[in-house]
Amino acid sequence: MGTYILKRIMAIIPIFLLATLLTFGMIHLSPVDPAEAYLSAAHIQSTDEILAQKRHEFGLDQPLHVQYVNSIIKICQFDFGISYLSNKPVWEEVTYRMPATIQLALGSIILAILVSVPLGFLAGIKKNSGIDHFSRLLSFFGASIPSFWLGYLLIFFFSVKLDLFPVEGIGTWKHLVLPSVTLALPLIALYTRLLRASVLESLQEPYVLFARTRGIHEKVIMGKHVLRIAISPMITGLGMNLGKLLTGTIIVEAVFSWPGFGRYFIEAIFNRDVPVIQCYVLLAAGLFIFSNLIVDLIQMWIDPRISRKGGQRQ
Fold first, then answer.
1. Residue 172's pLDDT band (boundaries 50, 70, 90)?
2. Taking residues 238-249, what's their average pLDDT?
3. I need a labelling partner for 232 at 20 to 30 A (CA). Which of 50, 74, 192, 212 fits?
4. Cα 46 to chain center, whole Å?
5. What angle do CA 82, 84, 87 make, to 5 degrees?
6. For residues 142 and 147, what is the distance between their CA atoms, to the nearest angstrom?
7. Which residues form the ABC transmembrane type-1 domain (predicted)?
8. Among 120, 118, 107, 98, CA closest to 263
C-alpha cells in the first residue's frame, strides 16, 4: 500500500505543474494587463511611467520562463502576491475566508450522506416499492432544479414567510441550514441514484448468491457484502464534489451572502484581481487532486478487488 500511495503522490506532481503552466499561460494570454488592473483597482491614474514601474515591480518585464519559475517558487512558499483590491496578501485573505467555505461544504456533504445512503440502499433492495418511487421523485427534483432558484425558494418560505432561519450571513447553526440544504439536494439526487443502481447490480453478483446458500444472515449479507461494494461509485462522486465544494460554491454563497472563498473569487473577477484569480485556480486544482487521491485510498480499503498497482479492478 505504501508503494501505491507513493506512486499516486508522484503522479500528482506533473498534474499540478501542468495546472500551474495553464494558469500562467491564461494570465499572460489574457488582454488584461496585471499592472493596469492593479492601478485600476487602486484608483491610480495610469501613465506610461507608472505602468513601467509596476510591470518591473511585478516582474512582468522579465522573460516568460523566468516569470514562470519565480511563480512556482512563490507558490511553494504559499506566496500568491498581494490583492489589488484589499492590498493584503492573497493567502492571508484566503485562509480568512476558507473556514466559512469548509463549514458550508462539510454541512452539505454530511446532510447528503445521511439522506442518500439509507434512501438509496432501501430503494435498491426494495425495487418498485413506495420508497423507491419516492427516491426517484426526489432525485428527479434535485437534479432538475437550479441551485440559485432553490436557494431563493427556501429563503422565501423559511425566512420571509415562516421566519425560521436567517436570510443571509454567518453566525449560528441556523445560518447554515438553508445554504446546506441548497447544496445538498443535488448531491442527494446524484448519490441516491448511484447507490440504488449499484445495489441492484450487487444483488445479482455470484458472491451474494453464495453467501445466501451458506446460510449467512440477510442483514450481514446486505451490510458486509452488498453495501460495502455498492457504495464505491458514491464515494467516487463524493470525491469529485468535495473539491468543488471546498473551492467555494459560487452561486449559493452569492445567494445567501456567505462570506466564503467562492464569493471572494467572484469579487476578484469583477475587480480583475489577478493574484486572487490565480490563487483560486491553483487551489481548486490542488483540492481536486487531493480529493481524488483520498477517494482512491478509501476505495482501495473498501473494495479489495481494486489493484494497488494501477487502481484497476482485477
1. confident
2. 74
3. 212
4. 38
5. 60
6. 9
7. 98-299
8. 98
> What's the Rg (C-alpha) of the chain?
24
Q: So what's the pLDDT on residue 111? A: 92
Q: Across the strands, what pairs with 89?
A: 82
Number of helices and strands (H, E) in the chain? Answer: 15, 0
For the whole model, what pTM was predicted?
Answer: 0.76
Grid coordinates representing 99 are: 473556514
- Contacts of residue 27, defined as CB under 8 A and 6 or more positions apart, other chains included, come to 34, 274, 277, 278
Structural contact between residues 242 and 72, judged by C-beta atoms closer than 8 angstroms: no
**Cα–Cα distance, 239 to 225 (Å, whole number):** 22
Mean pLDDT of 56-73: 83
Which of these CATH numbers, 3.30.70.890, 3.40.50.11240, 1.10.10.10, 1.10.3720.10, describes 92-272?
A: 1.10.3720.10
Q: Which residue, among 291, 189, 202, 193, has the nearest Cα to 238 in the 3D structure?
A: 291
* Total Cβ atoms within 10 A of residue 223: 12
Q: What is the pLDDT of residues 113-127, one digit of tens each?
A: 999 999 988 888 888
Tell me the residue type at 254. A
> What's the CA angle centered on 18, arms 12 and 23, to 5 degrees?
125
pLDDT of 206: 79
CB 46 within 8 A of CB 54: no
186-228: pLDDT as tens digits: 889 888 988 888 888 888 877 777 777 777 777 777 877 787 7
Tens digit of each residue's pLDDT (9 = 90 or more) over 175-194: 889 999 998 898 898 889 88
Beta carbons of 103 and 176 less than 8 angstroms apart = yes
What are residue 313's DSSP bridge partners? Answer: 306
Q: What is the pLDDT of residue 115?
A: 92
Cell 423507491, residue? 132
- Give dist(CA 42, CA 272) in Å, integer: 11
